[in-house]
């Protein structure tokens, strides 16, 4: 049996000092395999971004284990994480590409930078930058432009291209389409489907169940730091088991059953607060 690209086991993350310590993640267990897209759903404060940052070594863990391609990275020091990142095994796509892309670098320079760090020649890096733009359905005319000179949808696709430059096995995407209009949202989602077909493992973080319904193979629901439901996307959407998942489904405009009344949603909220 093939080892999952990402394995999270009983993960615990706490913030703050002892007296004011707050638990951000509690006993989270999740696998993501090659060529699989897992949608990580939950409202603001549920722990989605904390889980992503823990997987990337950006926040310390309090317990549990994280393995990437079978390598236990839970207790990696900064130098070990730097080496892993330079290998490009795992990449992160931020919600706001205007902030994640260096405003002073051209598109070509942004795409070439990770390759130059790896020791690739500048000429080869330039060739691969052009190839990557084509992969995300952008014209090479954008290469000499800086982020402020291109549209939001184009910037997000450049951010995806930059994540692909090191040929990662795992990409974590934090709300990658929430700031885009419908046309650009469709384009980015189509690109993500192509990546999945190419065997890349994807973790798609969103507060909106509707955004991931058409792309995720499985959906994992976080509520107050706990993973309350994980299953095939169709099963989670059509037969949600946890009250919080049912609330998310009933509140999603594109998924909501016409029979789901406001009173029923209030009843679900009451169950969650009990």
UniProtKB/TrEMBL annotation:
* Presence of the UniProt keyword ATP-binding in the record: yes
Family, per entry:
Belongs to the ABC transporter superfamily.
Task: Describe the location of the ABC transporter domain by residue ranges.
Answer: 8-249
CDD domains associated with the record: ABC_NikE_OppD_transporters
Q: Which UniProt keywords apply?
A: ATP-binding, Nucleotide-binding, Transport
Query: What is this protein identified as?
Result: ABC transporter domain-containing protein
Annotated InterPro entries: AAA+_ATPase (IPR003593), ABC_transp_ATP-bind (IPR050319), ABC_transporter-like_ATP-bd (IPR003439), ABC_transporter-like_CS (IPR017871), Oligopep_ABC_C (IPR013563), P-loop_NTPase (IPR027417)
Q: Which Gene3D superfamilies match?
A: P-loop containing nucleotide triphosphate hydrolases
* Native source species: Nocardioides conyzicola
